[in-house]
Amino acid sequence: MNERDEKKTISHLKEELKKIDDIFEPAVPHQLELDQRLARFKKERKRAIQKELLCFIVLAFVILFVYIAISIRVPAIFLTVQGAAVVILPVLALFEKKRRRTVKGEAD
């Protein structure tokens, strides 16, 4: 193909694409509809955040209660859990660091 044919083909394709764009022009929503959608989204998001916060607070109190109950009632189990955490957490951190390195390497 020579340069003239390429330019002709490109211009023809641009014209046809413009025709398609003119035929299938998307409907643009009105400002009022957009405002209503945004208000509804904000309201739903606010409810979701409140629900998540409530779940977090309840779970925090449950964990705190169990932590205190175990430390007062059964100190041997409490000390065992604390010792296991001291051993297991660094190992989990190493595994996570290694996993992130391999995932990052695959993405590159």
From TrEMBL:
Keywords: Membrane, Transmembrane, Transmembrane helix. This is Negative regulator YxlC. The chain crosses the membrane at residues 53-70, 76-95. It comes from the Bacteria. Pfam families: DUF5345.
